[in-house]
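TODO from last week: model Alpha/beta hydrolase family.
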Amino acid sequence: MVNPVLYRLEEAMACWRRITAPVLWLLGEHPFDHPIVNDVLATLDQRRACFSRLSEATVAGAGHMLQWEQPESMAAMLESFLLDDETP
């Protein structure tokens, strides 16, 4: 994919490691086959390891476009995360 912005994963991960807030990582149940997505899937464990306070959830019945394919389910997960009292 052509993009005028050069994306450097190592730079992004260095920024992510500095995040101290809780992070919610939502994934669609059905990833699609695309070279960029395949590269991301191959490095998911490295990406996850950058966040010290990571919560992860899978949105059933969704692929890449979670907010479009399952808006109610995604909103419920996000609302639950935002209202969680365990945040110091």
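Done. Residues 21-82 form one domain.
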